[in-house]
Structures are given as C-alpha cells and as structure tokens.
Amino acid sequence: MGPSTSEYIFIRTCIAFLHWIAPLSVAYSFVNLYLRPNRSHGFSIQDILIAWALLEAVFYLVIFLPLRRHLQRPALHPEHASREQRKQDFIQCMGSVPDLDEFLSKWFKNSPLSEIKRENIKEFLRWAFLSLDSVDEAYEDEVEEYVQLIEKTRQKEFEPGRGSARCIRLTFDKVELLHRSLFWYLCVWVVDCLTSLRLFYYGFSYHRLPLRRFFSVFPLRPHNLISPIKSPSDKLTYWHRPHHSKTDLPILFIHGIGIGLYPYVDFLAEVNKEIKGKDGKSVGVIAVEIMSISFRLAGQTLLKQEMCAEIDKILKAHQWDKCVLMSHSYGSVISTHLLYTPSIAKKIGPVLLIDPVTFLLHLPDVAYNFLHRKPTSSNEHRLSYFASNDIGVAHTLSRRFFWKESIIWKEDFGHRLVTVVLCGQDLIVDTQHVGEYLSGTDDDSWKTQEFKGKSLDILWFEKLDHAEVFDQRATRTKLLRALHEYCGEQVD
C-alpha cells in the first residue's frame, strides 16, 4: 500500500470500522434488550442485525475478554546457557552494534540518553541475557560486568540511580492485543477457503489435523473435515506436492506472519509449474501452516523443540533426507531453530531467506518497529492493527518468542549455499545494516550484485517493502531462479 492520502484514509476507515463493531454491538444489544421493541411476525433485515449484534457482543464478552486475561500469563523461558556462553553472546552482540547510543535509546522506546541510567541498563540486561524480571543476587556480578563493558565501549559511565526511561522487555511486558470481530473472522474464513481452492487447483494436497482437533482452529476450516489425508503431525497442517525427481532436492517452505499462505499462492503455483528436476520429474514442496500467526484463534505457537519435532515428523513421513529450506519473515525464526537442531540440520541443504528477521536480532529494530512504534503512515497503521495487535501474533511475539534462541549469525550456515532477500523500504527490519553485516562491507556494492549461487548471495529490492517481493511476477522470477538453482544441488 502506497503513501497517498486516499490510501491512508482507506486504511484508517477500515480499521475504525472493524474496531468499533464490538463496542457498538454490545451497546446495541443492551439497548435492544432493555427497550424490547415490538416485533413483527415477518422476517426482516433488522432481525438479522439484532442477531448478528448479539453474536458479536457474546463473542466479545464471553470469548475475548477471558482470553485476553488468560494470555497475559508469564512466558516459559528457555534454560540459561552457561555464564561463559552468555558472555560470548554478549560480546558478539555488542561487537555488531553500529551505533551504541542509538541502540540503547531505541531499546528504551526512543527515550533520551539522560533518562537511561545505571539501574535502567541493569534491568534491560537482566531481561535480555538472563531472562530475569527482578534482581537476583546470584547474577548481579555478571550484570555489573556487562554494564562496565558497555561503559568501556561508550567511554562514558552511566549516571547512578534510575531514570524515567522504560525498556522493551518482550516476554515480561503486557501482551498488547486488540479484539477481532466475528465479521473479521468471516473475512478470514472466506480468504482461507479461496486460498485452499486455489492450492487444490494448482496440484497441492492438504494434510489435515486429526478430526478430534477440528474445533482447535477458529474460523473452522472445512478442508480439515473433508481432506482424506491426515498429517503425521497432530499439531501442524501443511500443503504438499509429491517429490518424484531423483536428481533435485525438494522444498520446505515456512511462511511468515499474515493471513496464512494467501500471499504466496502465485509463487507456489509458479514453483509447481516451472521448477522441474534435471530428470524432468516434479520437485516436491511442503508448505507448513502456522495457524497461530495466521490471524486465527488456534492456541499457542509451538516452542522451539516442539515445532522442530513436529516438522521432523513431516519430513520423515515423506522420506525427505535432504531439502532446500525456504522461509519468509517470521518463518526465518523457525528456520533458525531447524538449523540449530542437529538431527534436522543435516537434512537441510541450501537456504533461501526472504525478509528474514533473525539477523542482528539483538538490535531493537524488529521489536520496536513491530510492537512499539506509533504508526503514522498507512502501511504502519496496517502493520500495527492487522498484524502486531492480532491475538495470536501478539501472544506469539510476547510469550513464545525468545531472541537468544532465534538470532542467527552468518557463520552458523556452515558451507551451505544461502540467499538472503532484502527490501529497501522494509518497515520492520533495518535491511541496510543487515546487508552490510552479511556482505562484510559498509559500501553499497552488495546491492547491485547478481545472483551467483556460490556461497552467500544477497538479492536487494530497493523500492519494495516487507513481503512485497511476492506481489509481482518480475520479482518472483528472481526468487524462482535461486530456488531452481538450489534444488539442482547434488542429491546425496
């Protein structure tokens, strides 16, 4: 969506309409119940509005309000690494901060440095590296060591005491989420059905949940009831294209935050049509669905070990010993987890990361831009309302996402072929810094390099925003070329 005034008015109008459905429905239902107007015996539009408003009111009062309270429960943090490992992580992170003062200010929600004092820094470091919400004397000497290292780098000591600045602490902060109306979920249901019909048309088969879990996703999905193929995972659904090629690798795709696989259907259809093995046979595709980040009510996002175990079940069921890993946006978090799991990492060949959020994740950009920035432009309002404040998305990022186990460094890929796709107008990621880090240079020569398929490639799209690379055939073609090249890597 562009920056024009008409587009801004359109997106703000849509948000206002969707936001006010619930409170107006509650008010209308109470007024209607109190006044009890006489009803005609015939069926009218008014009867439909009354019934719909009552459903919206019940959904808000009986479902959303208790759910919002329930989702504020504390996060279950991963176990601590050793102190030596934590210090190495700290030094590595601090060594790749381009501007330390800006880094601190943004983690403190753009507070002035004068209000970020010693106790503020300690509070931030306790969360960031120790997952602590309060002082624990067993770790205070370590926290003090980190503070001194920062002061040494800044060549300036922090003022004693505590300033007014408040830092971002994702897993301790309140989960900021907004109600979604039944009307909104009806729209999601329509999009889901259309997406599924298109994927069926393009030759993909759907692997459903067990029938006993049919009601675990809302809006309900008809294909979870009628599909004859059950997923080997009891918790993940996916779309599958059989792999027949003996010469080329299949593709594992993990989507990002959004309305499921809808933005990727054209791309998946082109993969189906255009990518064939050297032997002329089809290259397989598994497109995993993560319902909790797809604007549905679907329970909690699986933690790292659970997610990896469920994906491994799927790979084993299809006897995929090696595949190309492709992911978009938040999907790069799951990709990182897979690469850090030895039993699965050995099955991963070349990697294609589109709009990844896991490089330089210690920088505040992703957390601040996605969850704490006050929106001004139409795109920022769209991101904030429809994505950041979605119930499942907000809970995932605030209670099920841990940056220390999700950050990836370029050396972690080993000898794999890797392509990273970055967009110059990305609303979420500071792609300039990510590109400089990956290329190892602070000039812009890496932005004009063509795909070579030799080690680490960067594809740069100067005028595109986050996820827009999937919108046009011309940009998707560049992704297809890299993917085709990677599928053609030698099969073990």
UniProtKB/TrEMBL annotation:
The keyword Membrane is assigned to this record: yes
Superkingdom per UniProt: Eukaryota
Protein name: AB hydrolase-1 domain-containing protein
Source organism of the structure: Aureobasidium subglaciale (strain EXF-2481) (Aureobasidium pullulans var. subglaciale)
Keywords, sorted A to Z: Membrane, Transmembrane, Transmembrane helix
Residue intervals passing through the bilayer: 9-28, 48-67, 182-204
Keyword Transmembrane helix among UniProt keywords: yes
